[in-house]
Recover the amino acids of this structure.
């Protein structure tokens, strides 16, 4: 489970101090999907970065699976991210010098998964995202949507318990976006993982278990989708 | 870290370099050319020193001069490994006389064929020819010939002292080297013409390029003990030795300035290379790659590229040096009035162990050092900041 308490993060913009996050608190249970919505600059990406250990908060704490990430050493934080976290970035962020196959293989090899097992998992993931024929392609040869699907496959390949996705459907058409989110939720349920997704996309919010609205770094509304 | 993990990071580093094709090629070429040029320059500097030694010793003295050698010692005994040729000479101190003119002289009796094949004095003949074996013929310096008022074909006499019986000679050639101690008071004739020249003798020993004089002299001393006395060209020509030492010092200073510039260039290029790919390292870091692994990855990328470029640079440098040493670089236009290039202005670059390992080592070490700062930037920086800095 993810427990976020009173999270705050400031950025300096010229001479001004900007509060990107302020007093953000919430919990996400295993198997739960939380959609974080809000305008551009509302603090969604900063929130995901803090939860994933990519950014150090200035105030408050993030406990993932019972571990306070920001109290860990650099090495321990890396090991935690490697084993338990999966990121889907807004623009895919695939490694440009690795093929599709090698990009998905990277987290598996990092986690010491044997080659045979890697082959099986990568084959299955590529089938799931509909890009089995692109295994040898380099990211530069793929469309934005394809990059995003491979980014998703890479994020879940090592079966993380926490999946963080930043605008995963931004570069996808609505049908592909729907399919991808559905796939995320399937994986989430299979693995009892927690999903936090920052999005503008109504398709995503419809499928999420709960929605959190951020404005100027503060939670303005939190609701269960079923209730909504 | 186990072998499997190291192999994984090696593979990732290799793929990174292979697929960043243009950048890798440009950066590798820069390192490769720097290493090759440094190797070639270094071998050229050694070649220039070699040429000065070769020029200076090839006219007369050889690399080693054996003096006061016993009559029962034969030149073949001095021909050990590294020795190209040994010329046997008998030195007769005496007077040259033409009519009423007299000049003191050291008349060197030696086999004309040996002299011509081992020394370059015959190339400095300005008129006439070298004396022929078995004939009472003499080669004189222009200076001595003028002092005696002699021309080619004139008769002259040699005697050990004023009271000694004269030996008649005919002047067949005159030479000029531009080197005082060869141009004054020295004359050449075939052996067994002057009576009493079959006792103690001296030897001019000529070595191959790169053969250490001390090594050969060491062997001679082991073999002949105190029965023979040998002097090196360094002892006979301290001025040349000092000039070469000076050359080595200035060459070292220049080389290290060039190394420094190359090192700064290589370092800057590697820093730019890593910073250009900062985003990729941020992505890798977000997937849980540890600080040690980041450092290892960057080190392997820089190390692999440097290694391949250095191997290529050494190969190119060696080939260039070898080709130029076969062809020779003609610097006659710059050396024609230099006494240390009295015979030939052709320089043949020579590779030494120093010129082979220092340039690649410098490039390799500076490449790795240059990767420390950007690696620390990636390791210490927050992943989100690195990714934001795209």
């Amino acid at each position: 489970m993810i427990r976020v308490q009173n999270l705050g993060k400031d950025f300096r913009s010229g001479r001004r101090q900007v509060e990107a996050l302020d007093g953000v608190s919430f919990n996400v249970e295993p198997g739960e999907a939380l959609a974080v919505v809000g305008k551009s600059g509302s603090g969604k990406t900063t929130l995901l970065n803090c939860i994933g250990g990519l950014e150090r908060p200035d105030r408050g704490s993030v406990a993932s699976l019972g571990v306070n990430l920001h109290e860990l050493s650099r090495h321990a934080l890396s090991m935690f991210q490697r084993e338990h976290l999966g990121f889907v970035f807004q623009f895919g962020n695939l490694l440009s010098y690795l093929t599709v196959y090698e990009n998905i293989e990277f987290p598996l090899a990092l986690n010491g998964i044997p080659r045979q097992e890697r082959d099986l998992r990568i084959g299955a993931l590529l089938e799931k995202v509909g890009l089995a024929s692109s295994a040898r392609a380099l990211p530069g040869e793929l469309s934005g949507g394809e990059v995003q699907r491979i980014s998703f496959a890479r994020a879940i390949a090592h079966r993380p318990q926490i999946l963080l996705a930043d605008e995963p459907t931004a570069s996808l058409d609505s049908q592909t976006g729907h399919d991808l989110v559905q796939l995320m939720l399937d994986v989430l349920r299979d693995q009892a993982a927690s999903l936090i997704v920052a999005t503008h996309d109504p398709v995503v919010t419809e499928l999420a278990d709960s929605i959190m609205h951020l404005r100027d770094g503060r939670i303005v509304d939190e609701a269960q989708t079923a209730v909504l | 870290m186990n072998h499997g993990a190291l192999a994984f990071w090696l593979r990732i580093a290799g793929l990174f370099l292979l697929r960043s094709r243009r950048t890798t090629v440009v950066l590798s070429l820069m390192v490769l050319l720097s290493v090759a040029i440094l190797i070639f320059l270094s071998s050229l500097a050694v070649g220039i020193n070699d040429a000065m030694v070769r020029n200076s010793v090839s006219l007369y003295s050889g690399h080693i001069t054996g003096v006061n050698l016993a009559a029962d010692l034969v030149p073949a005994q001095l021909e050990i490994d590294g020795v190209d040729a040994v010329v046997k000479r008998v030195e007769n101190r005496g007077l040259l006389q033409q009519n009423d003119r007299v000049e003191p002289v050291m008349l060197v009796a030696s086999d004309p064929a040996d002299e011509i094949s081992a020394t370059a004095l015959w190339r400095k003949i300005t008129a006439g020819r070298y004396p022929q074996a078995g004939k009472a013929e003499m080669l004189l310096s222009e200076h001595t010939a003028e002092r005696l008022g002699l021309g080619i074909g004139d008769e002259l006499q040699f005697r050990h002292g004023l009271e000694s019986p004269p030996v008649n000679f005919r002047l067949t050639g005159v030479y000029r080297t531009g080197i005082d101690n060869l141009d004054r008071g020295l004359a050449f004739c075939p052996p067994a013409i002057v009576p009493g020249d079959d006792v103690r003798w001296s030897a001019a020993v000529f070595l191959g390029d790169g053969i250490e004089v001390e090594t050969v002299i060491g062997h001679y001393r082991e073999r002949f003990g105190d029965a023979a006395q040998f002097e090196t060209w360094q002892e006979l020509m301290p001025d040349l030795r000092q000039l070469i030492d000076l050359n080595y010092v200035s060459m070292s200073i220049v080389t290290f300035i060039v190394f420094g510039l190359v090192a700064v260039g290589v370092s800057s290029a590697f820093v730019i290379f890593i910073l250009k790919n900062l985003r990729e390292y941020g992505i890798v870091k977000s997937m849980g790659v540890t600080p040690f692994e980041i450092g290892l990855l960057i080190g392997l990328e820089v190390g692999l590229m440097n290694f391949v470029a250095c191997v290529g640079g050494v190969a190119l440098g060696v080939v260039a040096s070898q080709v130029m040493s076969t062809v020779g670089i003609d610097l006659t236009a710059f050396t024609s009035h230099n006494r240390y290039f009295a015979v030939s202005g052709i320089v043949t670059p020579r590779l030494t162990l120093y010129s082979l390992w220092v340039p690649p080592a410098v490039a390799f070490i500076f490449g790795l050092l240059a990767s420390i700062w950007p690696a620390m930037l990636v390791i210490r920086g927050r992943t989100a900041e690195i990714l934001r800095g795209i």
About this structure: Chain A touches chain B at residues 46, 49, 52-56, 74-75, 78-83, 85, 87, 89, 93-98, 102, 106-107, 109-110, 138 (CB under 8 Å). Residues 174-191 of chain A form the longest helix (18 residues). The mean pLDDT of chain A is 89. Residues 206 and 225 of chain A are 7 Å apart (CA to CA).
